[in-house]
Amino acid sequence: MNALKLAVAVLVVSSFTWESSYSQETQPSAPGAGQGSALNDSEAVDGVTPYSKATLSQWILYPRDQGSCGPLGRHGPIVLETYFRTGVNFPIGGGIYNEVLNAGWNVGGGGRSLFFNPEATKAWVIDLGISNVHYNSSDRSPQVSLFNLPYLDRSGQFGFGVNRSITIPALDLGLISLNQTFVNMSGGKEYYLLGDAFCQDRQWRIGGDVGGRYGTCKGEFVGFPNISNTIGAIFLTLHSDLIIPWGKCNLFGGVRLEWDYTWSDILQRQNNSDLASFGLLFNGGLQF
User: Fold this and answer.
1) 43, 78, 89, 203: which has the fewest Cβ within 10 Å?
2) Cβ neighbours for 133, distance < 8 A, ≥ 6 positions apart
3) Is-contact 133 165, C-beta < 8 A?
4) What pLDDT does residue 128 have?
5) What is the end-to-end Cα distance of the chain in Å, rounded?
6) What is the pLDDT at residue 76?
7) Read out DSSP for 24-90?
């Protein structure tokens, strides 16, 4: 009998303990309760640090606000662009080249770094690229007098299968074409007239650059091998671009005006072989 009473007592105590524990676990928390102990992704759970996916820093990614424009912080972002340019170059000054060359075709490409102000409405720009310009002549009559020209004679007149280097004292030549290849570096500034660099809408900007070029040129002549030489130039530009958001990047396109002055002595010092030109180019690329 005593054993039966003991069993009943144990069952009653166990039932009361289970009900008390269940009511504590299911009771809703008061508003604001437990906020101080909430775990985030960077905190450990049971002593184990949760897995976190590695990403680039926010300074590099620079997340763009999807719905607002305006100040973005104390320091402005840095934006990169890749571009392609092509268009027409018109000779407008210089010596013999200005007299005989037709308009040439200009092709180039490169990259730009834009250093924005906090409002992302202005940016200093560094531009590094390459370009090539090809001109054809409108007059191939002998107009260029050159002296003491080195020439490799391949006629074999000095013996069967024998070539010989000779010097031609004087020769009048006609120009067929001129080709220029440059490495370009410039600096300038951009101004956004519509929107800013991070508005999720169309933007319009204008800007200008000043810089220098260094490269080589090759002249093709009537009845004589090509002549090559190194050249240098300075240039000034103005441009205007329309920018359209495209996913995580921006597409841009517009027009670019260039004034260029190139120094060269490919036609020897007695001939003025400098060339001033004006370029009207299409400018397009990707901003990210």
Assistant:
1) 43
2) 89, 104, 105, 106, 107, 179, 180, 182, 277
3) no
4) 98
5) 87
6) 85
7) HHHSPPPTTTTGGG---TTS-BTTBPPP------HHHH-PPPSS--S---SS--EEEEEEEEEEEEE
Answer yes or no: CATH 2.60.120.260 is held by domain 75-138+178-287: no
Query: What pLDDT sits at residue 107?
Result: 98
Question: Residue-wise over 171-189: b if at least 16 C-beta within 10 A, else e?
Answer: bebbbbbbbbbbebebebe
Phi, psi of 198 (to 5 degrees): -125, 10
Tell me the average confidence (pLDDT) per consecutive run of 10 residues in the chain, 288 residues long: 49 47 46 45 50 51 48 73 98 92 98 95 97 96 91 64 79 96 98 90 96 97 93 98 93 98 93 96 96
Bridge partners for 127 per DSSP: 112, 186
**The pLDDT of residue 74:** 57
What does the alpha-carbon distance between residue 200 and residue 195 come to, in Å, rounded to a whole number? 9
Map out the domains of the chain as residue ranges.
75-138+178-287
